[in-house]
Design brief:
It is a single chain. The protein is an alpha/beta fold. The protein is built from one helix and three strands; from the N terminus they run H-E-E-E. The protein has a three-stranded parallel sheet, with no helix packed on it.
Length: 98
């Protein structure tokens, strides 16, 4: 959905709604820019995030550190539980236990 937001707007929400139809448990979706160690050019924000407000998915998982996402966009998702990852490969160092 993030990689091709125009196509996602055409049928992504409908497909997600259909996939979740009848699901009784807690539902979640993860949106990402791709594997951060390999995908070096990313947009500064999510192109397809506010559209998920209309989906029955209860939890939305995103990452912010690699994209420097402005978290104010999350205000457009009332009623959703946000799973927010904030790690970055820029600080990859081995930590040795003391």
């Amino acid at each position: 959905m993030q990689a091709q937001p125009e196509k996602a707007r055409q049928f992504g929400v409908k497909a997600l709604n259909r996939a979740l139809d009848g699901v009784l448990g807690v539902t979640a979706i993860h949106l990402c820019f791709g594997y951060a160690a390999l995908v070096h050019e990313r947009p500064s924000g999510y192109s397809f995030l506010p559209e998920l407000a209309e989906c029955p998915v209860q939890q939305i998982s995103i990452e912010t550190a690699q994209s420097s996402l402005d978290c104010s966009v999350l205000l457009k998702l009332p009623g959703k539980t946000i799973i927010l990852a904030c790690w970055t490969f820029q600080l990859m160092r081995s930590k040795h236990p003391k």
